[in-house]
Design goal:
By secondary structure, this protein is mainly α. It is 83% helix and 0% strand. It is built from 12 helices and no strands. The chain has helices spanning 3-22, 27-34, 36-60, 66-77, 84-90, 95-125, 133-157, 159-187, 189-221, 225-236, 240-251, 258-278. The termini are far apart.
């Protein structure tokens, strides 16, 4: 997307992760030890089960373009969206657990995303791409982890200012995500309808199946219904902005980013429906 992918997109991600950091404290990471079972069920569901389900879906429902299949794996590999905490609150779920999962997956993803994206390309496209996983991890670290840490430092030393700006930052983050998706659609508008038909169905399946699987895995293994709601939404709301950036940065965009755009549109609708049905369940 030219100047959008080279300048605006990295800056948008950096701002979104900075806004995430503004809402974090060291206590948010302590739940790894305070709620270890709930935390690790949520973490493993997102970074292990979700990509596996994505891979099974693209094997069962072959897409006309292997690039679309790689795009599905990219959206399955990225961390939870910044709005998952808000939706968890609306669903009366465990917001503290949601914040912890969002924080940790956002840090871990700098390693898992390049690994899954590059290996998915090699397998699905059938050729080995000359990409350094380590180099890409450092690149993601710079625009994901560093802004998050900066946001946490601002929260620690300028707490009142951070809390006052945090809500505005979340609204701006949603606007930035919308602009990124619109930019992607506009650039590839000639082919977008056909690819949206294919990617839309597969990403809808991915979203719904993963939310169902996450909910019932959580119901079996975690503390209670609040934690189940949280883990379901963490697995259903992916960070589409990061997925679009990965598609652009790793594979020069094109068809690779279409699943990220369709998923980003679909996930809000399914999450609203989920919140409606589980909000009053205890």
């Amino acid at each position: 997307m030219g100047i959008i992918s080279e300048i605006f997109l990295p800056l948008a991600i950096a701002f979104i992760m900075l806004s995430l950091g503004l809402g974090l404290t060291i206590k948010d990471f302590s739940r790894v030890f305070n709620q270890p079972r709930d935390f690790f069920i949520g973490l493993s569901s997102q970074i292990i089960v979700l990509p596996i389900i994505g891979f099974i879906i693209i094997m069962v429902i072959p897409l006309s373009s292997p690039e679309l299949a790689v795009g599905v794996m990219i959206i399955a590999a990225v961390p939870g969206g910044a709005t998952s905490n808000m939706f968890t609150s609306l669903a009366k779920g465990d917001v503290a657990l949601s914040v912890s999962l969002t924080a940790v997956t956002s840090l871990i993803c700098v390693i898992t995303i390049p690994f899954i994206a590059v290996n998915s390309f090699n397998y699905l496209i059938g050729t080995d791409i000359e990409i350094s996983i380590l180099k890409k991890s450092f690149g993601l670290f710079a625009i994901i982890t560093v802004p998050t840490i900066i946001g946490m430092l601002i929260r620690k030393f300028f707490e009142n200012a951070a809390l006052n700006f945090e809500k505005k930052a979340k609204v701006i983050s949603v606007v930035l995500l919308s602009l990124v998706i619109i930019g992607a659609i506009v650039k590839y508008r000639e082919d977008v309808l056909e690819y949206f038909k294919q990617a839309g169905f597969v990403t809808l399946l991915l979203n719904i199946i993963m939310m169902i699987v996450a909910f019932y895995i959580a119901r079996l293994f975690v503390t209670g219904i609040k934690q189940s709601k949280c883990i379901t939404l963490e697995c259903g709301l992916q960070n589409g902005t990061i997925a679009i950036f990965v598609a652009e940065e790793f594979f020069n965009g094109g068809v690779y980013l279409i699943p990220a755009a369709t998923y980003s549109l679909i996930m809000f609708a399914t999450s609203i429906v989920f919140v409606y049905f589980v909000r009053n369940s205890t």
